[in-house]
Amino acid sequence: MITLTGNTLSFTQVNKVLFKNEKVMASAESLKKVEAARQSVERIVREEKVIYGITTGFGKFSDVLIHKDDVEDLQYHLIHSHACGLGEPFPEIVSRSMVLLRANALLKGYSGVRPIIIERLLELVNKKIHPVIPQQGSLGASGDLAPLSHLALVLLGEGEVFYQNKRMPSMEALVKEGISPITLTAKEGLALINGTQAMTAMGVVAYLEAEKLACQSEVIASITMEGLRGIIDAFDEDIHLARGYQEQVDVARRIREYLSDSKLVTRQGEIRVQDAYSLRCIPQVHGATWQTLNYVKEKLEIEMNAATDNPLIFDEGRKVISGGNFHGQPIALAMDFMAIAVAELANISERRIERLVNPQLNDLPAFLSPQPGLQSGAMIMQYAAASLVSENKTLAHPASVDSIPSSANQEDHVSMGTIASRHAYQVITNTRRVLAIEAICGLQAVEYRGIEKMATATRAFFEKAREITPSITADRIFSKDIESVNDWLKR
């Protein structure tokens, strides 16, 4: 059981909740803060103070005063009018992440919701009821309004959910789990949707997959090193210490460890003096990606524990301030950066694939074909990798440099962070398939070289991978192999 405080949620804990179904609970101390903030909201309503989103309308309607008898209707209308999400739903794991992160943010005690709102969110997590949340429709400022409105609908017994591997009306799942829908009161609708949890949830899932993929890319690159009889001297520690980037030093060390007892790698001058950059510069390129991932992780860990709605309540209600913590710029930039960094793993991987299949660049059978000419072998696998790499280049165009005004120019600069996070995730998905293709080609190359000469570490990967994709003894429908290896890497 993981206890949420609003301030201490870590990637390790998120990983357990998302992928190992660890249950969550709210800390008693945090719930006290939540209750104190709630009392402040109710006092504001009673005294009819003019506070944004509690006794006023939203966005451009912030100058419209709302009578205290209408504050519940105000929140109800907010959720319905803002539930404008479009397109395919976020992956179920992202929806789960979104509910978790919204509950954690509300537990900070700055939002003014009743504890029951948080309790209901945690019930959704613990009982694996995941809102169906369309991916498109957020500008990434004023919060992820449209996506989070679809999340909030579930608390009202409306909208749809994923439950027990089925998509169904929310009320059907709530009834099965004995959960009663709630009625929103003052500020609660606004507190649920005025946040960055869609982009952050997508970013968290993307980061966890990118981190794993970056590790896998090093093992796969090591197999390619063996398949091409790469020069191990380029990974000597002194070279990398001389530059000073720790991530570069670490990648070189891991490659040396993977290949420590390989009889297929060579020394400089033995066959060649220098390798092409796609081999020689693995630590420099992969290391730079790790630098970026470390930056992204830092920003996401801050955002996972951030108060991102508006207004925020401080000093037991003596200070209620309208600000802009809902603006997703920090995450938008981080997501764009991650997309670029992971795209580079695909770029350099595709160049290694080319070196594995191009007979002008190696001494292996042309295109790793069992019968060059009669059979095409891996020829079109390289095409597929090139296509994915090119698609990544368009997806890596930064979303964060764009903005468009909304709400009659009241909200005149937005982050597009949710678009950035979705693009980053697609880049990761594409890159995994490129690495799957490199793995298939690398496995075939080392077979020609002699698997008995492989390093212990790479041989272990080879044996497991051969259970997923057999040796190329004849042309076949290679898309099946690529998807099988892709799914294996993702698992």
Automatic annotation (TrEMBL):
Annotated PROSITE patterns: PAL_HISTIDASE (PS00488)
Modification after translation: Contains an active site 4-methylidene-imidazol-5-one (MIO), which is formed autocatalytically by cyclization and dehydration of residues Ala-Ser-Gly.
Membrane spanning stretches: none
E.C. designation(s): 4.3.1.3
Annotated positions of the 2,3-didehydroalanine (Ser) modification: S142
Pathway: Amino-acid degradation; L-histidine degradation into L-glutamate; N-formimidoyl-L-glutamate from L-histidine: step 1/3
CDD domains: PAL-HAL
Catalytic activity line of the entry: L-histidine = trans-urocanate + NH4(+)
Record-level GO BP terms: L-histidine catabolic process to glutamate and formamide; L-histidine catabolic process to glutamate and formate
Origin superkingdom: Bacteria
Predominant cellular place of this UniProt entry's protein: cytoplasm
Entries under HAMAP family matching the protein: His_ammonia_lyase
Family designation: Belongs to the PAL/histidase family.
Protein name, as recorded: Histidine ammonia-lyase
Lineage of source species: Bacteria, Bacillati, Bacillota, Bacilli, Bacillales
Gene: hutH
